[in-house]
Predict the structure.
Amino acid sequence: MNQLKCYIITGTIFVIFLGTISHFFYDWSGNSPLIGLFAPVNESTWEHMKLVFFPMLLFSLYAIPKFKNAYPCITSSLFSGILAGTALVPIIFYTYTGILGRNLFVLDLLTFLLAVIIAFIFVYKLTLSCRMQEHTILLCDVICATLICFLIFTVVAPDIGIFTPPH
C-alpha cells in the first residue's frame, strides 16, 4: 500500500510539472507543428486538456509495465484517471466561468491542479477496488480515440466553443 501511495504522489508531481512546462513547449519550439500535436497551440479549453492527457499518458506508459504485477488493476485505473482528469478541465473551467462570467488566470491554474489531483485520487481508489478492470479494453479504446481527436483537432479544429480561446 505504501508503494502505491508513493507512486500516486510521484505521478501527481510528475504530471503537474510536465503539464505546467508543456504549456510553453509550442512557443519554445518556434511553433513546431509536431510539438503542437502534444502541447497547447493556443489558449482554448481543448488545447489545455492536453496538459493533463499527455503527461498522464506518458506516466502511464512507464507505470503500467512497472506496477502491473503488484497491482493488476493499474491499467484500467490509469486509463480511467487519464479520462477523468482530462474531462475535468472543461467541466471545472466552464462551471467556474459560468458562475463568474469570465475566466481568471489563478482559477485556470487551480483548474489544472485540481483535475490532476482528482485524477490521481481516482487512480488510487480504482487500483485498490479494481472496479474498472472489466472495462480495460473499452478504456484503452477511448484513450486511443481521444489521442486521435487531439491529433486531428489540433490541425483542423471545429468551429465550436471548446476549440476557441477565451476572450
Notes: The helical segments are 2-22, 25-28, 33-36, 45-67, 74-100, 105-129, 136-155.
